[in-house]
Hints:
This protein is mostly beta strands.
Amino acid sequence: MKNNFLALFLICASFLFAQEDTNKPTKFQVGVHYVGNLRNENIISDGFNGVVGISGNYAVYQDEMISVFGGLNIDYLQSRDFFLQNNILIWNPNASIEIDAFKGKLRPFFGLGYAFFSTDFEYETASFDPSDPAFMTRTTKFKFNGLTINPGLKYHVSDLLFVEGSYKYFPVNSNDIDGTANAHFINLGLAFKF
């Protein structure tokens, strides 16, 4: 997986370096990133491995110093087969602000959003039906949601490509399960601007 990601990065970077710099403002950003799910002893961090995510942003305002974006991140997490057996997609609409604080290629950003996902949970009940004396498997759907806080850094390699690293805090709430699971994600990836 890491070799494939590196090969994709090198191919895309070589294509973008070959392009001519236009210096015109770009409105759209589309990216792919690795999702690291940090463990902290709760149902989300212990139950899922982070795999990959995609993001799309649109600049609603831009000047030389500040860019304001609205966008959507979708993160794919793989189940570790503990309590929640199915892989999940976390949908995260968000708004972010990027500041050219260092007057260069490195720019910090801060995002706020609202994430949600659902997953099926299968369990067996002791239903002693005369026609089927075995345990019966039942399924219920659990829904999770919460606010996300997402600070990070972007390094603009060219006018058309940047790499980014960020941290995402996601206090996961559910009406189906008691308590809150504080999820912590580390994202590393690259994105294209057009």
